[in-house]
Specification:
Blueprint: H1 11-24, H2 37-48, H3 56-61, E1 64-66, E2 73-84, E3 90-100, E4 104-106, H4 108-119, E5 122-123, H5 125-140, E6 144-153, H6 154-157, E7 168-175, H7 180-190
Parallel strand pairs: 2-5
Antiparallel strand pairs: 1-4, 2-3, 3-6, 6-7
Helix pairs in contact: 1-2, 4-5
Length: 195
């Protein structure tokens, strides 16, 4: 699915609901500037939630390669955008993912695709972190997986406590990353910005 040109079933109905929302907040959905807004928002919402129609496990399985490599593989600074399920406002940031292969590796871009799939759903950062880890663990069956997600939440910046500079960090790990030394190595590597 090309998220910019192909849309899922229910698009017209979704646009009708956004037209109603505009009326309910006191706007005139028929005025020139808002006339096409309901459909634009409906299309945007389908794009922002396209992860519901994608299988992250299958993405990894499509690029599974037998390889005798058993050291840490890290894909860091994976940009993502998501929608907080509590207020449907964006949260965005970077995900850092590491795994230690156990006979199989996957294409590096597939790790970023896994992040993309789970972030394109209504989410909480904690669950997204767990889902990324579990998908890689269950599909690749590595010696260990660790995921760190750092994000800014518009629900904290635009409303409520209105804290503009706060960053939320979540992490989850299993296997070899249960050892503090391995986790420390990963953290040192993701915070080293040299290429």
């Amino acid at each position: 699915m090309n998220p910019e040109t192909e849309y899922r079933e229910g698009l017209d109905k979704l646009a009708e609901h956004y037209r109603d929302i505009l009326s309910l907040i006191g706007e005139d959905p028929g005025r020139e500037g808002l006339e096409k807004t309901p459909m634009r928002v409906a299309k945007a919402m389908q794009t922002l939630t396209r992860g519901y129609k994608e299988d992250a496990h299958e993405v990894l399985r499509q690029a599974l390669f037998k390889e005798d490599y058993s050291q840490m593989v890290i894909v860091k600074d994976i940009d993502f955008f998501s929608l907080c399920e509590h207020h449907m406002l964006p949260f965005y940031g970077k995900a850092h993912v590491a795994y230690i292969p156990n006979g199989y590796i996957t294409g590096l871009s597939k790790i970023a695709r896994v992040v993309d799939i789970y972030s394109h759903r209504l989410q909480v950062q904690e669950r997204m972190t767990l889902q990324i880890k579990e998908c890689i663990r269950d599909t690749l069956k590595p010696l260990g997986v660790m995921v760190v997600v750092e994000a800014r939440h518009m629900c904290m910046q635009m409303r409520g406590v209105e804290k503009q500079n706060s960053i939320t960090t979540t992490s989850d790990f299993c296997g070899a990353f249960n050892q503090a030394k391995t986790r420390e190595e990963f953290m040192n590597l993701i915070h080293n910005n040299k290429i």
